[in-house]
Design brief:
This protein is an alpha/beta fold. The chain is 28% helix and 17% strand. It contains 27 helices and 28 strands. Strands 21, 22, 23, 24, 25, 26, 27 and 28 form an eight-stranded mixed beta sheet that branches. A seven-stranded mixed beta sheet has the order 3-20-19-18-4-5-8. A hairpin with an 8-residue loop joins strand 10 and strand 11. Helix 1 packs parallel to helix 20, helix 5 packs parallel to helix 6 and helix 5 packs across helix 13. The longest helix is centred in the first third of the chain and has 18 residues.
Amino acid sequence: MKPSYKFNKFCLTFLIGALIFSLAGCSTCSKAAVKNQSQLQEYPITTDVFTTLQRTVVPGPKPAEAIGLDEIPKYKQYGYGNWSFGDPLKSETRTDIMPALYDATAVNKKAKLLNFFTITDIHITDKEAPNQLIYLQKLHPTLPIGASLHSGIMLYTTQVLDAAVQTINALHKQSPFDFGISLGDTCNSTQYNELRWYIDVLDGKVITPSSGAHLGADTIDYQKPFQASGLDKTIPWYQAIGNHDHFWIGSIPVDYSPRKDLRQSYISDEVFATGDILTNPAIINNHDYYMGVLDGSTPYGDVKYAGPAADFKSPPKVAADADRRSLKRDEWMKEFFITTTNPAGHGFNLADANKGFACYSFVPKSNIPLKVIVLDDTQKEDDGSSDIHGHGFLDSARWEWLKKELADGDASGQLMIIAAHVPIGVEVTAPNSEMGWWTDPQNAVTFPDLITELQSHPNLIMWIAGHRHLNTVKAFISPDPLNAPEKGFWQVETSSLRDFPQQLRTFQIYLNSDNTISIVTTNVDPAVKEGSLAAASRTYAIAAGQITNANIYDYNPTNDPTVKPRPNGSYNAELVKQLSPAMQEKLSKLDLLRIDDPLPSWNDTAPKKAIVAFVEEVTSPGSPNFVPVEERIATFDNDGTLWSEQPMAFQGYFISDRIKALAQEHPEWMSKEPFASILKGDQNSALSNGINELSEMIIATQSGVTSDEFEKYVTDWIATARHPQTKRLYTEMVYQPMLELLAYLRANGFKTYIVSGGSMDFMRPWAEKVYGVVPEQVIGSSIKTKFELRNGIPVLMGIPELDFINAGNGKPVGIQSHIGRRPIASFGNSDNDLAMMQWTAAGIGARFCLYVHHTDDKREWAYDRKSSDPFDKGLDEALAKGWTVASMKDDWKTIYAGDQQRGK
């Protein structure tokens, strides 16, 4: 008797699963050799994560009683460092660089192009280093810059960075970041251990934030080793260089200073002595005062070994530490290749690193014509200057490189962002400012000429920077605002993670309905937990500002009318930028339509609207059905859902081809079933005689084949095999609307899984390239495997014994076994997917189930209830429960990638 369809389907699935090896390997993993690592302290942030658009940190009034920065135990007693949460800080719409009569209220945001964050001026500090300038703060107790030399903030720099990273991760779960960039001054004084702490916090390593004798490492909170959380591995981050990254205390070249023992002083055991170089940098060789270190064995980091040299009978000593060594520019850059986060080098490349050339550019998203130009605008080590090295500067190589990058960006039709450490145009020029543009002839370009060059590139939309520890926004208005407003650009500064307000920034770039650009930039406070070390640092940072009268609110030395006051040190804005006609035309083309409409191959009918509504519902932070990123799981059937499956599942063709490839070695197959039917192209007959003959085929086809060999068979076949009817490559029969849906979900923080009745090992070699689904997110049927050594080489071999059939009721089991979370969205096309749909729909909260209904007999195949892959019970349940059913004929503009779209 001819077997039923269900038996036939089971046999084919079993055959596929048995022929395909399970490639799941085994590996050993080891943790870093750290004692009691499992007991290491972690410092989680609060669960409520807000931006300043939702609430702000408001410092309390300055207390009347005057105290010193070093009198940390008195802060609480006299009310220093108090703060509370205040009202939201609105985002100010800025049209300074737009035509005079421009009305931003009549414009809507049409498409989000980019979402990224900036951090800067972290100043990871080795508080026990022997060559600091702590005592100079004592000599100038009310000088705001003194807080950079010594304050309680120095105790917790690694912990504050860790809190900021966790805050970024939380925001990423709400709205995924495309990338992040750190704008320099990672270190406080060029030290190797400072840089490693910085990179290792971002990598999520164990941090030992002490040096030398590691005083207090077992008893003092800020000295204790801790486990950093690490930046979400899906966020690429990039790095710019700052003056503190390659100058001593950010100020003096280590090897080009009148002080010849400066490099040795880093790894010395003798506390550094010098003159009052804040008053006169030329007296750096004096030994008037010992600068002191912080005592890590004390709760507040008491200063020791500081004061007039005459008060010491002999030079004070500390435990030396080779990890304090000062890094040269090229050495500093090379450390970014020793990392577990992405990308390798974090923007730098080894060839330029060997030369100490810290400029590069990158394109964050391949489908957005925008590049980021990362510019090193810090001073040179050998420039001969004896003053503080905090000026803006470009040597001839960097200047020529910048001009070429800008010209190339215009020629390629790319929007451009310059990311640098030192901002421009917000400080008076040297020598009247230590942070203004350097006027020395060694600077390859004057400030006026720099601005002229920048304004000649209409695709430049923004310069972002750190350095001044301020959240300033400045408008560079076009020299011809009436006829060429597109020559204007914006500058946005991000404040330090060291000094109050200790914030990072987010940037969302939108294309507007009138083809202008909006840059929405928002300050974010690290979501510190009450009682945490990062919370203590916030208190100390506020106190430092109160004691030194630091003006972070309306400091504006150039009296620039476009620089607005900063309430509580913060400033949020929507910055509107005019685009050139050529750029407007480019952004109106197909590439942008993909961003404007994430599902362009779907007709604007009910299924598409339901998908978008669901995604917005579960990803909007204020929604009652908001779902955290880690719970955004979507599962997809493969055959008939992601690609065609007629007249049989495509893996059946692969099985036939494998048997045909082996037939020459087995002439007896020509007359022996089930091989004879396979060789004649009659798969149904091959499946008609039951499980025994199927087992025989399994043994025959897998004999002597390793998992690596099988992967190559699949890879070679999928690259060349064509469908017998359409003559297309099988990967050309992937559904374009579903590819868009996969990408749309991933762009909104979903993990997308393939859950198929077919074999995992047939799909894994090509699923990432074709679908964007990584191998570990492919779930399918499998056979048992065993590990063995072949000629001393470890291999995985398939055993002709069924392990798991991931079909029908098996799909929820496979999902739970492999994922461990219930999906919130599932997509299928037949009754074989019903159990997966039921399992998904039964969960709590918002749920989404969509069936692909094969209704188009002209562009694909039309089949449902009585077909070889029936869609009967599933269709009834979908209609009864209100699940979404997408008709190929009515709801899809196109079927396959590359086909002409058909509007509805």
